[in-house]
Amino acid sequence: MGGQPVRWGILSTANIARAAFLPGMRAAGGVAEAVASRNAESAQRYADAHGIARALGGYQALIEDPDVDAIYIAVPNTLHAEWTIAALEAGKPVLCEKPLTGSLADTGRVLDVAKRSGTLLWEAFVFPFHQQLAGVRAAVAGGAIGELREIHSDFHFRVTRPDNIRLFASLAGGALNDVGCYPIRLAFELFGTEHMSAWGTYVPGGEGVDLETVAVLGYAGGRQLVLSCGMNRSYDANTRLLGSDGEIRMTNPFHPGDADRFEVIGKRHEVRAAAPPGEPSFAPAIRHIQAALSGTEEPRLLAIDTALPTARALDDLHLVMRPAPS
């Protein structure tokens, strides 16, 4: 990168880019070089509203743009594979929204291209880069709660617009794909292994999706993840890590703000801030990505190393989940 800021291209005009990616990118010192939409007019409106230097009509134009160094992809889940592969094959590093794709088969295809091309790819689970998870890891490794046995994790929020893409099975929407994937990734980070069994039940709604889901994943040694996710009630990301000698309570393990904390209750008791004051949730991940692209840090938490366990768990749960009695 020659010491210059990373110039980002934003592939789609999704709300997540406005609300999460752009604040994190700017806090990390990146540049919003261009945004692409399916038509130039909507891209221009988005660029004007959110301080992005240029607007492009069509996603391929963004991928081919020589002034774009890296691409953030936030199209609907069913389009992740197509445009991530196109960017990787063009040699553009990618941060792709979670889940990496809408299916296990597509995830395998994307990861094959990432391995073959050698182009760097990250899935936009940003919480593994946070200071909070580092503190939690240290507490667990230090025996503060004994052996970690269970994770109980919620992720709920409200969807009110009937045209929201999360409400359409044809776009790989649904609560499990959209937010249930977060507890699954958290369990992989903390248990360090893939699940061995799966069970789930859901409340159907929208256009063929799960509006609310409760699921259990079993891991080696009798450990469990119990997750609850949905799009039908107020924001909630409370999570408990239950050990043989205590627990850790996290008010928001995934996108912590200034008011969020994690509390260790066990052999010692302490309460810590989840994030530095005023730090956008995406900032630590983007800061690392930019350092990796500049050559000052070795790339870590790449999708080729982390994405398959989540994709396999989602696939297994979709196969076994049954509708809740009405």
Description:
The chain has about 325 residues and is of the alpha/beta class. It is globular, with a radius of gyration of 19 Å. It has nine helices and 16 strands. It has two domains: about 140 residues, 3-Layer(aba) Sandwich (Rossmann fold), CATH 3.40.50.720; about 150 residues, Dihydrodipicolinate Reductase, domain 2 (2-Layer Sandwich), CATH 3.30.360. Strands 7, 8, 9, 10, 11, 12, 13, 14, 15 and 16 form a ten-stranded mixed β-sheet that branches. The chain has a six-stranded parallel β-sheet with strand order 3-2-1-4-5-6, sandwiched between helices. The model has no long low-confidence stretch (mean pLDDT about 95). The protein starts with 6 loop residues before the first strand and ends with a strand.
Number of helices: 9
Write down the secondary-structure element order: EHEHEHEHEHEHEHEEEEEEEEHHE
CATH architecture of the largest domain: 2-Layer Sandwich
Our estimate of the beta-strand percent is: 25-35%
Radius of gyration: 19 Å
DSSP, total strands: 16
pLDDT < 50 stretches: none
> What CATH first level of the largest domain would be assigned?
Alpha Beta
* Helix proportion: 25-40%
From the spread of the alpha carbons, the general shape counts as globular
